[in-house]
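Example record

The entry below shows one chain as it appears in the dataset: sequence first, then structure tokens.
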Amino acid sequence: MAALLRDLAGLWPIIRLGQFGRTVPQWQAAATATVNRYAMAATVLASDYYETERRYAEIPGLFVPDLVEVPEEKAAASFRWATSDLWIPEQRDPPPIEQRLATAKTKADGAAEKLVADATRETIVGAVEADLEARGWVRQAALGACSFCKLMAIRGPVYSDADAAGGDANSRFQGDGDFKFHDHCNCHAAVIFRGQTWAMPPHVREWKRVYDESTKDVTEGGAALRNAFRRALADA
């Protein structure tokens, strides 16, 4: 995503102090066009990945995934949220405008990365739903992932439809679905085909060991289990 962030940084000067009403919408339009360009390239790569994995699994026949586009309103809402603090009235004693601009840029970068990543993940999700030879997908979380992402990764190939995808979940993981992802999330969806088995990678096996050990005495479910796991990871 480095190239995406570099291109977005080049657009940031469009926003001018004292001219937010005119220049912020201009920036939002330019940022949306940039995201769409990167999403198109990313979904092509996701489709190539899916087709390659299908060949490696020796699945007969041809299957071409549909490429997912970034919904216009989803991009608009993301960038409105990212820049919303620029409009705080002076009566509310907001932080200095320089600080608010820096915060808005960080939020916009995360939102843009998620928009592109969502398109790639949803391309894989849609292919799994449409392809009768697909068993499901597994969440691949980075070594430095948050505790929630690690918890989802240890579940293995249990996701099989869009209802589990959680693409509409927000940064607090609120929303539908189990496969939730957030801004700055580097998790990917890896397809598993019928007849294939999933071997848990060593780092995921270690996360599962920590989870099993930290939750063995927890009597409540849900948040209690997640919190015990989070604390154990922090202490490790």
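Notes for this example: Residues 162-178 have pLDDT under 50 and may be disordered. The helical segments are 2-11, 20-56, 72-83, 97-130, 147-153, 202-215, 223-235.
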